[in-house]
């Protein structure tokens, strides 16, 4: 152990501990900005580029960045000396001198870590005036909004994109004052290998990276008397939305969310979970077909549009291995504009399908040209959990006091299996519940597959079905996915089926969720809440969903049949690395 | 190779050079030097080729190219005119010399003239402050340059 003194308090810490971590142990708060430690997903941004965390170390000439300086024996540190505080203030004032001060109308207003820092340090005057950097704004992707005038060069996005997701879209470009984080050749995001996972947005401390908002388009559709606007909500929304209204992380707000959506004026409030159950039927059928008829294995799940774009760019030689199933919300859109339109006697051209998603990639997904049916987009608009919270606030709805309401029929019925789609391991667990029963004709008594649960980056399970060991792999975070794909490329993969989600933790930590500000306990609570929601469901296997059975009886016919393929399956496109 | 808009003969030579390097990622700067020597500049397609060939992200290659002022993404003329903007040259009127070159050749700093003859660059101190202001053309040094000398210097290379 190492003994040091911080602000007169004696602290003992293991070797290798930084001053910042040691101070935390002594309940001393050192402000930070660029630093971000997400050790659960193995991401630490310690570029020490912002210098906000500088402290005085006795015997050292210069101030030391607490986030990147290791504690040493006998060290005497002052975090609150006049010199340290003055330096910190100067650093923040310099940052602000090249930062727009349009906080009142900024996307990140009240959510910005630079704004918070300026408030905490009591900055009332920016003494430095000089050149301001200005860059063209990038709205090319329908997904990620880049406004680099607000970038503070913390490099968190780069660390996330390059080290965790291994997408390598961003790099620091140019030098000196002109330095900017940019894709290769300054390309617009839509022309890059970006998967639009939005994890860069999730960790950006300012509004340099945010989402492209579709809120105004949703309001417009809702006020158009010629439109029939329906909404679907992804599983991960119901366990995160409450946070935006001051509720405890992990609060399950399904009923309140439905009530709020009805008050916002949606004609019908449906559940993406319904379509997730459909996905399981199609995917389990595809898996069994490949398993029994010598098809290509492992089969890979295809629910995550970010992951799909990743394989298209990075492993274009492996495009025959993902399941051909559309993602659940796209399936929902197709079903709504065919089956539901028929059933309710509404012209599908009048139907506007809005998806509430925890995800930024889904905003991009809906503009993929192949995801159209008879000339109509499957899903018209996608807004995130954060955008939905904004709409609820704008409409003056007192969210916390709403009484629970139920999803509408018939596309609101769902099972426990579909609820857990929102977390890593959930899709494959749901698929196993169905595949096991279909393959064995026996009832699966214990439906919980614990080994595929949790936040480990790579998980595996072996399940004996009819005497055959079925090996399952699970990866979340695209860096982990890359490892499994490289093994497949080398012919070393032993798995029969693999689930991949692009975001660390799965959709519960998606790029459109309420910001966690580095606290991954929030994500763990969302995960627990999804498993609770699953346990509370009467039906926990997708193939037992009565509304889904009816859909197949009345409209689609056979699972995996011709009509199913026409409506519910898709294909993939080879893309270049850039 | 057909996918890159590059001279295939030069590209083949570059490929041979890269193939001879074992640790490609660490040799990126050397490779970029070699490529710039061969092609005269580093256009987007050339950077993309190098990125894919060496399995280095294109964003990183672009980051390195834009960081070092030696590397250029603009084609270079037959003759490169370097005007020193170091402190001594600057106070002796280098700015006016630069403006005159830009006026006569009708190009911006860093660009190539339409006939492919000249590129204008600026640099910081060539270590000949006693001769300020200094202009260098392809390594030849011109000292105590006056605005009216500029036309003569250009003429020398137009022959």
Automatic annotation (TrEMBL), chain A:
SUPFAM superfamilies hit by this protein: 2Fe-2S ferredoxin-like, 4Fe-4S ferredoxins, Fe-only hydrogenase
Domain annotation 4Fe-4S ferredoxin-type: ranges: 142-172, 186-214
Superkingdom field: Bacteria
MF terms in GO: 2 iron, 2 sulfur cluster binding; 4 iron, 4 sulfur cluster binding; ferredoxin hydrogenase activity; iron ion binding
Segments forming domain 4Fe-4S His(Cys)3-ligated-type: 83-122
Record carries keyword Metal-binding: yes
Keywords of this entry: 2Fe-2S, 4Fe-4S, Iron, Iron-sulfur, Metal-binding, Oxidoreductase, Repeat
Keyword Iron-sulfur listed: yes
Segments forming domain 2Fe-2S ferredoxin-type: 1-83
NCBIfam families linked to this entry: FeFe_hydrog_A, FeFe_hydrog_A6
Name of the protein: NAD(P)-dependent iron-only hydrogenase catalytic subunit
Taxonomic source organism: Caloramator quimbayensis
Automatic annotation (TrEMBL), chain B:
Protein keywords: 2Fe-2S, Iron, Iron-sulfur, Metal-binding
Residues involved in [2Fe-2S] cluster binding: 84, 89, 125, 129
Gene3D superfamilies recorded: Glutaredoxin (3.40.30.10), NADH-quinone oxidoreductase subunit E (1.10.10.1590)
Annotated signal sequence range: none
One protein family per Pfam: 2Fe-2S_thioredx
GO molecular function: 2 iron, 2 sulfur cluster binding; metal ion binding; oxidoreductase activity
InterPro entries to which the protein is assigned, alphabetical: NADP_DH_HndA-like, NuoE-like, NuoE_dom, NuoE_N, Thioredoxin-like_sf
Cofactor note: Binds 1 [2Fe-2S] cluster.
Cofactor(s) this protein cannot do without: [2Fe-2S] cluster
Keyword Metal-binding: yes
Record-stated family: Belongs to the complex I 24 kDa subunit family.
Name by which UniProt lists this protein: NADH-quinone oxidoreductase subunit E
Species assigned in the record: Caloramator quimbayensis
């Amino acid at each position: 152990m190492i003994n040091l003194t911080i602000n007169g308090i004696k602290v003992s810490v293991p070797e290798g501990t930084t001053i910042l971590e040691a101070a935390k142990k002594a309940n001393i708060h050192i402000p930070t900005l660029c630093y971000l430690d997400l050790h659960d997903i193995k991401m630490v941004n310690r570029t020490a580029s912002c210098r906000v965390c500088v402290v005085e170390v006795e015997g050292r000439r210069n101030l030391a960045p607490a986030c990147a300086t290791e504690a040493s024996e006998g060290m005497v540190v002052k975090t609150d000396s006049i010199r340290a505080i003055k330096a910190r203030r100067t650093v923040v004032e310099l940052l602000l001198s090249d930062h727009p001060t349009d906080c009142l109308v900024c996307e990140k207003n009240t959510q910005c870590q630079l704004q918070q820092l300026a408030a905490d340090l009591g900055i009332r005057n920016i003494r430095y005036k000089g050149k301001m950097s200005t860059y063209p704004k990038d709205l090319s992707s329908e997904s990620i909004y880049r406004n680099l005038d607000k970038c503070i060069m913390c490099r968190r996005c780069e660390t996330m994109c390059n080290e965790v997701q291994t997408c390598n879209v961003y790099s620091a470009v140019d030098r000196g004052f002109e330095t900017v984080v940019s894709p290769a050749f300054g390309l617009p995001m839509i022309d890059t290998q970006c998967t639009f996972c939005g994890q860069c947005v999730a960790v950006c401390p300012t509004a340099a990276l945010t989402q492209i908002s579709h809120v105004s388009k949703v309001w417009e559709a809702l006020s158009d008397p010629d439109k029939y606007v329906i909404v679907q909500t992804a599983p991960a929304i119901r366990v995160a939305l409450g946070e935006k209204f001051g509720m405890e992380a992990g609060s399950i707000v399904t009923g309140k969310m439905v009530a709020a959506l009805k008050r916002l004026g949606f004609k019908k409030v449906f559940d993406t979970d319904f379509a997730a159950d459909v996905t399981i039927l199609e995917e389990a059928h595809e898996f069994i077909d490949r398993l029994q008829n010598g098809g290509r294995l492992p089969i890979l799940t295809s629910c995550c549009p970010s992951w799909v774009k990743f394989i298209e760019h990075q492993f274009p030689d492996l495009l025959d291995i993902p399941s051909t199933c559309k993602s659940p919300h796209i399936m929902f859109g197709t079903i709504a504009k065919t089956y539901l339109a028929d059933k309710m006697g509404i012209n599908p051209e009048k139907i506007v399908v809005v998806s509430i998603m925890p995800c930024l990639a889904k905003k991009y997904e809906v503009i993929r040209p192949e995801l159209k049916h008879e000339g109509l987009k499957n899903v018209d608009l996608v807004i995130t959990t954060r955008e939905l919270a904004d709409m609820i606030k704008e409409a003056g709805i007192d969210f916390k006091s709403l009484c629970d309401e139920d999803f509408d029929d018939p596309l609101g019925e769902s099972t426990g299996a579909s609820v857990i789609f929102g977390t890593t391991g959930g899709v494959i667990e749901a698929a196993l519940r169905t595949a096991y029963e279909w393959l064995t004709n026996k009832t699966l008594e214990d439906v919980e597959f614990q080994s595929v649960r949790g936040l480990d980056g790579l998980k595996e399970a072996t399940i004996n079905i009819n005497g055959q060991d079925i090996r399952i792999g699970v990866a979340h975070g695209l860096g982990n996915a890359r490892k499994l794909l490289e093994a497949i490329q080398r012919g070393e993969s032993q798995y029969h089926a693999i689930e991949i989600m692009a975001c660390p933790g799965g959709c519960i930590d998606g790029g459109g969720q309420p910001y966690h500000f580095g606290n991954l306990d929030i994500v763990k609570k969302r995960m627990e809440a999804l498993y609770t929601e699953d346990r509370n469901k009467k039906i926990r296997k997708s193939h037992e969903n009565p509304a889904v059975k009816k859909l197949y009886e009345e409209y689609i016919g056979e699972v995996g049949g011709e009509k199913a393929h026409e409506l519910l399956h898709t294909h993939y496109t080879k893309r270049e690395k850039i | 190779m057909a996918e890159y808009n590059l001279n295939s003969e030069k590209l083949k030579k570059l490929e041979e050079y890269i193939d001879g390097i074992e640790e490609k990622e660490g040799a990126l700067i050397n490779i970029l030097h070699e490529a710039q020597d061969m092609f005269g500049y580093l256009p987007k397609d050339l950077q993309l080729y190098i990125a894919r060939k060496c399995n280095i992200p294109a964003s990183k290659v672009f980051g390195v190219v834009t960081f070092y002022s030696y590397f250029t993404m603009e084609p270079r003329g037959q003759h490169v005119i370097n005007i020193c903007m170091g402190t001594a040259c600057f106070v002796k009127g280098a700015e006016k010399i630069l403006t005159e070159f830009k006026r006569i050749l009708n190009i911006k700093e860093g660009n190539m003239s339409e006939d492919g003859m000249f590129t204008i660059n600026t640099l910081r101190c060539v270590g000949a402050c006693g001769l300020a202001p200094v202009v260098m053309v392809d390594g030849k040094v011109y000292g105590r340059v006056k605005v009216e000398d500029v036309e003569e210097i250009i003429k020398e290379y137009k022959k």
